Amino acid sequence: MLKTRVITAVIGFIIALGAITLGGPVYDVLITLLALLGWREFVLLGKAKHVRMSILWGYISILLLMIAFACHQYILAIAILVLSLSANYMLCTFGENKYSLASVSFSVFGLFYVGIGMISLLMIRHDSIYMSLSMPFELYNWGTITLWLVLFTTWASDTFAYFAGRAFGKRKIVPSISPNKTLEGFIGGFIGCIITGAVFSYIVGIPWWMGIHVGMISGILAPLGDLFESKIKRLCNVKDSGTLLPGHGGVLDRFDSLLFAAPITLIYITIFVLI
Fold first, then answer.
1. Phi, psi for residue 172 in degrees, rounded to 5
2. Is the terminal CB of the chain with fewer CB neighbours within 10 Å at N or C?
3. Residue 158: which of 30, 255, 26 has the closest Cα?
4. Are the CB atoms for 53 and 43 separated by under 8 Å?
């Protein structure tokens, strides 16, 4: 099991390294594929709870939204979102024998849950968004640096929380959802994220406070994203969201923390860096 997890992690890291380094269409296509796979897993989770959703509606909506954001067509993206939501409501109205109100609610929730996180990961890598911001100093690869900062601090959350929990863990946070997560592990993960962010900032030469801020964001939101996805799986009575990644589960299992941390990091970059 451990060997399988390590092999999958190494292959995944190599793919991520190549896509992030190349950027552009290569990275955009990879994130879009992950978003589509994440939606598929979400539909299967709903199926486990006997909630029927239109998988095709989600595929079309997410694909068009990802294309619009990749091309920086934000007004078009809003129009696509409105039309997608309207189409979903029409499915409930004219297909009431197949799609209930619960189907509509679950579908909309899934679209936002998967879509917002993946779109944020897409946008963080785009160097063009940093050109209009008052960044601390000019860099040609702000997108690459910021994305790796988010990834490393998020991974640090899991790693430091695991070792801190094993060494000092006593107080369970939410045993009904994740019995192994402890308050001590959460604190250890939070501190680890801050340290990782600061060290990463020093190595790549960006302001230390930016690394610490992103580390704090990941330290709080990464475990919450993990717990949230665990709650969904508990409700659906499944162990993993999918089987795409041997030893790790599915896309949602691997990206649950990033789906929470990435959007707030993007907001931090676009708002607080402007001040």
1. -70, 140
2. C
3. 255
4. yes
Nearest-angstrom CA–CA distance, 165 and 174: 14
The mean pLDDT value for 234-254 works out to 85
The 8-class DSSP code of residue 270 comes to: I
- Residues whose CB falls within 8 Å of the CB of residue 232, separated by 6 or more in sequence, listed in order: 45
> What is the residue type of 209?
W
Q: What are phi and psi of 98, to 5 degrees?
A: -105, -40
Q: Give the Cα separation of 242 and 164 in Å (integer).
A: 28
Q: Report CA dihedral (179, 106, 27, 214) to the nearest 10 degrees.
A: -50
Provide DSSP, 29-58: HHHHHHHHHHHHHHHHHHHHTT----HHHH
Give per-residue pLDDT as tens, 7-39: 888 898 899 999 999 999 999 999 999 999 999
